[in-house]
Amino acid sequence: MHKDDCIFCKIALGKVPAHKIYEDDDVIAFLDISQTTKGHTLVIPKEHFDNYLATPQEVMHKVMDVAQHIGQAQIYVLGAKGVNILTNVNKEAGQSVMHFHVHVIPRYISKEGFRIEMKENPNIKDLSLPALAEQIKKGL
Ligand code: AMP
Ligand code: ZN
Description:
Layout: H1 7-12, E1 20-23, E2 27-31, E3 41-45, H2 57-77, E4 82-86, E5 102-107, H3 129-137
Antiparallel strand pairs: 1-2, 2-3, 3-5, 4-5
Bound molecules: adenosine monophosphate (AMP) and zinc ion.
């Protein structure tokens, strides 16, 4: 299934050009139009799913397999020293294109481009980690 108004569906259908790196029956990888670092790549399923959590496991695995290969190539060919592999789910998490995609971002120099920092949030008070773990467990 494709969505008429989805830019990544248009890329998957060849209606919008992209700098493709990889393509098979189910997955395409292409350069992000806005290069956070040199070689910043997006990996998407050809079929439309809104995000990672909404993607069937089999398709998600295929996308993640390609993301791993792209990351390996960025280190091997581009000389990257590290790679960030990430996907945003919904606008609260920074997702701007609502078609599942994985960012594969080669890293050459620490802190160049962006930095993901997991800071402890001082506004979260009275948290019981055992109770929280139990709560999430119940949703599995
Ligand atoms: P996100 O913010 O995680 O949804 O990422 C969406 C990404 O898609 C951004 O990094 C954009 O630069 C990128 N993007 C949007 N339109 C295009 C396009 N036509 N070709 C390549 N990348 C695109
Ligand atoms: Zn789409």
